């Protein structure tokens, strides 16, 4: 990679095409050459290419095969002679082949991997397009004679005021080249800010109620255009210099340092670039691409879009975007019409933006066969796959006949993928290969693919996926404002609270024989010491998924409402929802006659037990023994049960573990653990 020769014992060589050229020529490489795009301005393009002659140091049979990465741009014109020199198989890799690529390789495509396939495989994320149009952006405007307007030097940006002698009409393509209209830029930025909060990513509000702007990359026309946009973005978002940065080669800061912070740190939230981050740069947390420049090259546009497709795990995303739960998709905000012309084969999967997931699911189940429906449903399920937990995925497989979300989405997309239809049709035996029979085979193949994709869905699976989606998604209405019109208890509140308590009790009763924890509470009251953390978590997970309105918070508030109406005060809900759930179950199944905070109740039971142990004795336990007993109490409060083996883990292990407790309590150790398990949860 850095030498000017090929070692004789090398089995694999990695090199830029510039370095390989210099080795063949026997010349020292200009180190700056490798920093340039070999197909654009470089040391080589400034002089006439000299043919590569045979050199014994590098025979033509040096390599068995050559792999050319990014082969859409680096193997043409002056560079092709480097590859032509060798007698080797050539393997090209590129995400964006163009006509030159297909021509160079004689249309010999060995393997294709479409954007849609990469999305369904979880390699990339899907995207949506949000359009912002303004009057001047679309139609331009006219500067009237007699107006005083600014004139600015493009290079120095020095301004002067001047009266116009005649009318000057400018078109949309003149913007930010011949004419700069700050209000046109400001209008777009202001609308982008509004759309972010209201429509694009409305759920990015932190604990302080402040909106967190997702990582945004803005593509602009020129370096001067970038300066104008950065100034207006900082003003409109009311943020400082760190919030929005320029990432171009013409900047006072090291562009690599800015890019690294954009990728790995909280600030900047918005980066503005002309072309430095357009290709070959990985910024995984990116969630928005804002186009304020048009792109005529389909390859270049694909590369620019590729900046947003990168997947990222939830923890890494939340390190730089705290309010983001997972990167399920990215959004192209088109403020210039860059997506209108057909530059690319890839397309957004989402076709039915305003239709709820449950309606899409039901439509497929009811037998509706529509491409937009299938693709939109695939898009929603791809997003859900990024959020779903392993436990939820297992349940989904059970309901779908063994399929996971990746397989389900692949089948939905394949139903209208012409390549998949042709492949299936080709495997069908035919009497002959007449056009009519081939067409009939394709029709039958598509019908089978549609039937296969739709057959997965059923009422129970649909309900489960909708419940899971609700569990992972919140709707935050920041549009409608509210005012207080009345503040008092009324009969509807009491009726609602009564219904919630009734539903909760009925739900527990219905499932008491199938959920272990409920079975113990209801049927074996004297063995409640067998309740474990895992058992309570099972009740909690099932309840919040199937009956989210019966989550502990809601049920506790309902009990509080009913008690207050009778003049009885309910204790504050425990901070731990699982502990609160234990209190509610005990109340619902009749163990407790009134709602008690289970953590405080266990503390009271502990005090009573200690008092009983000291009855007739003076301080039966030493201070060190009391410290251990309190640790056991705290463990039971959080985990509902303690086993002898738990003494080998935190916090007991740091105090000597099982051996230390035996040293303190001797043969009574097992008896004390058994008693505390029973007494604390009594």
Automatic annotation (TrEMBL):
Pfam family, one: ResIII
Residue ranges annotated for the Helicase ATP-binding domain, each copy included: 1-115
Superkingdom of source: Bacteria
PROSITE patterns: HELICASE_ATP_BIND_1 (PS51192)
Name of the protein in question: Type I restriction-modification enzyme R subunit C-terminal domain-containing protein
Organism expressing this protein natively: Candidatus Haliotispira prima
């Amino acid at each position: 990679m850095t030498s000017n020769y090929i070692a004789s014992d090398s089995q694999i060589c990695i090199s830029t095409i510039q370095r390989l050229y210099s080795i063949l020529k026997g010349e020292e490489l200009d180190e700056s050459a490798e920093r340039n795009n070999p197909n654009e301005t470089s040391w080589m393009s400034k002089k006439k290419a000299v043919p590569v002659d045979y050199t014994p140091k590098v025979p033509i049979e040096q390599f068995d095969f050559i792999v050319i990465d990014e082969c859409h741009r680096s193997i043409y014109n002056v560079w092709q002679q480097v590859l032509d020199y060798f007698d080797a198989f050539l393997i090209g890799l590129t995400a964006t082949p163009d006509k030159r690529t297909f021509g160079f390789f004689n249309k010999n495509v060995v393997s294709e991997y479409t954007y849609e396939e990469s999305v369904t495989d979880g390699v990339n994320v899907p995207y949506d397009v949000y359009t912002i149009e303004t009057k001047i952006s679309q139609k331009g405007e006219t500067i009237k004679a007699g107006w005083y307007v600014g004139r600015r030097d493009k290079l120095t940006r020095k301004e002067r005021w001047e009266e116009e002698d005649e009318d000057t009409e400018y078109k949309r393509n003149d913007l930010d080249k011949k004419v700069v209209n700050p209000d046109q830029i400001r209008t777009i930025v202001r609308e982008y800010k509004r759309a972010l909060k209201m429509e694009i990513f409305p759920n990015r509000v932190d604990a302080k109620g402040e909106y967190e702007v997702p990582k945004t990359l803005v593509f602009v026309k020129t370096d001067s255009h970038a300066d104008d946009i950065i100034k207006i973005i900082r003003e409109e978002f009311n943020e400082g210099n760190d919030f929005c940065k320029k990432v171009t080669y013409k900047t006072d800061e090291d562009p690599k340092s800015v890019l690294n912070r954009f990728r790995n740190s909280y600030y900047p939230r918005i980066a503005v670039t002309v072309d430095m981050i357009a290709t070959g740069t990985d910024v995984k947390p990116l969630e928005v691409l804002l186009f304020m420049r048009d792109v005529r090259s389909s390859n270049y546009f694909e590369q620019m879009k590729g900046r947003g497709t990168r997947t990222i795990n939830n923890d890494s995303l939340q390190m730089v975007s705290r309010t983001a739960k997972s990167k399920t998709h990215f959004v192209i905000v088109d403020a210039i019409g860059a997506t209108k012309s057909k530059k690319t084969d890839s397309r957004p999967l989402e076709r039915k933006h305003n239709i709820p997931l449950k309606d899409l699911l039901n439509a497929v189940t009811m037998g509706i066969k529509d491409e937009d429906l299938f693709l939109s449903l695939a898009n929603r399920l791809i997003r859900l796959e990024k959020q779903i937990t392993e436990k939820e995925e297992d349940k989904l497989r059970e309901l779908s006949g063994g399929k996971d979300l990746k397989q389900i989405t692949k089948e939905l997309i394949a139903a209208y993928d012409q390549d998949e239809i042709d492949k299936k049709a080709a495997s069908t035996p035919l009497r002959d290969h007449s056009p009519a029979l081939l067409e009939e085979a394709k029709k039958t193949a598509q019908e089978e693919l549609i039937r296969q994709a739709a057959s997965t869905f059923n009422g129970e699976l649909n309900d489960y996926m909708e419940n899971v989606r609700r569990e992972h998604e919140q709707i935050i209405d920041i549009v409608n404002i509210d005012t207080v019109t009345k503040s008092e208890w009324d009969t509807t509140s009491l009726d609602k609270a009564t219904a919630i308590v009734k539903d909760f009790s009925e739900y527990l009763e219905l499932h008491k024989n199938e959920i272990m924890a409920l079975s113990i509470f209801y049927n074996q009251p004297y063995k409640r010491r067998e309740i474990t953390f895992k058992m309570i978590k099972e009740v909690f997970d099932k309840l919040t998924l199937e009956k989210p309105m019966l989550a502990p918070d809601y049920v506790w508030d309902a009990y509080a409402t009913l008690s207050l109406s009778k003049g009885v005060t309910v204790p504050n809900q425990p901070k731990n929802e699982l502990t609160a759930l234990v209190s509610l179950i005990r109340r619902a199944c009749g163990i407790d006659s009134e709602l008690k905070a289970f953590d405080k109740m266990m503390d009271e039971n502990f005090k009573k037990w200690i008092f009983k142990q000291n009855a007739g004795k003076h301080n039966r336990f030493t201070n060190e023994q009391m410290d251990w007993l309190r640790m056991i109490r705290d463990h039971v409060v959080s985990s509902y049960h303690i086993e002898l083996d738990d003494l080998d883990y935190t916090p007991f292990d740091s105090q000597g573990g099982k051996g230390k407790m035996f040293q303190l309590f001797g043969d009574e150790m097992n008896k004390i653990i058994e008693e505390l398990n029973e007494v604390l949860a009594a």
